Structure formats: C-alpha cells, structure tokens
Amino acid sequence: MGLLGPDNQMTLALEKYDFRPGDIIKGVVGLNLEKPVKGRKLEVALIGTRDTTHRDSDGVHNQDEIIYHFELPLDGEKEYQNGQYPFDIKIQPDILLSNSMSQQINQKLEEKLGSFGSVLGQMVTGQRPIHWEVKAHIDIPMRLDVNQSRDIVISPAALQYNNKI
C-alpha cells in the first residue's frame, strides 16, 4: 500500500524501452481501481525534458525544461475502474533535430562515437541530454490524478554508409 493508496491502481507496460526516431512506441495502460472514479480523460503522453541552468541576480538555478510534449487521448469523460487500453505513439522522424548548432554537434558525435561522443558533445557544447518518458494518467477533478510513467531512450539512428569502391 502506497502513501496515497494502492500502488497497483494503474500499470503502464511497453513492448520495449529503447527507440530511434520514426519508431512506434507500443504499450498498454491497465487500470485496477478499488472503486469507480469519475474522470475527465485518460491519456498517455511522450515527454522530453532537459535539465537547464540559468543565471540571474539571485544566483544559478537548475530546472527541468519541457522541450517536447505529445498527448494521445485513450478515453474521454466517464467512470473508470478496470480495463486495458492499448496505444501506439509514432516518434517523429525529426524529433532529435533542431536548428541549434550545438544539438547537431551532439548528435553527430553520438552517432560516430556512441555514449562517449554524447558525453564529449555535452562537454563541448554545454548542452545536457534529453530525458524521455511515457506517462499515462487519468484526470480526476478535485482529487489526485492516477498516473504511471516509464523512462525510455530515444537515440539517433545509425549512420548509413555507402561502401562504393
């Protein structure tokens, strides 16, 4: 039993946790609530955040900045209790691309050198990695929402080389 109720009210199962741009995230949200609750909506979201640092007159502050947020509604306003809700979220092929030169440098170094390239790119450009998660939740008026999340990895697709002689 968790602090706010049973820990198994909602499950979020994914087929896998490592993705490339253009892949499809397949999963199932499962509900097992003790009693019916009136909810506004059930949705699943793909969220990307980055830890950012900014300076002002009060000093240096770290905070998470949401850089990507996509929501997929699974069901609307109704009473929720039990059920299985399968979903597919297509990851945009250009999700890791940006006009930012530092992000392009990071991506190229990671493609060529793997995780070492990612660390090197962050050191060179000062840009931190993106934290990706899939999050499911029921929006319940005037009560704490029921939610569940899973961390995932979205990494650049491998470079395609043409070996012509």
Q: Quickly give the structural class.
A: mainly beta
CATH class of the domain at 10-93 and 129-154: Mainly Beta
Number of strands: 8
* Biggest β-sheet description: 5 strands, mixed
CATH architecture of the domain at 10-93 and 129-154: Sandwich
Morphology? globular
Question: Radius of gyration from the CA trace?
Answer: 19 Å
The largest beta-sheet arranges its strands as 2-8-7-4-5
Range of strand content:
over 45%
Low-confidence stretches: 1-6, 158-165
Taking all residues together, what is the mean pLDDT? Answer: 80
Intertermini distance: 65 Å
Can you offer a commentary on this structure?
With 165 residues, this protein is mainly beta. It has a domain at 10-93 and 129-154: Immunoglobulin-like, CATH 2.60.40. Helix content is 15%, strand content 53%. It contains two helices and eight strands, in the order ββββββααββ. The chain has helices spanning 101-113, 115-125, and strands at 10-14, 18-19, 24-39, 41-56, 59-75, 78-90, 130-139, 146-154. Strands 2-8-7-4-5 form a five-stranded mixed beta sheet, with no helix packed on it. A hairpin with a 2-residue loop joins strand 4 (41-56) and strand 5. Helix 1 packs antiparallel against helix 2. The termini are far apart.
Summarize the structure.
The chain is mostly beta strands and 165 residues long. The chain has helices at residues 101-113, 115-125; strands at 10-14, 18-19, 24-39, 41-56, 59-75, 78-90, 130-139, 146-154.
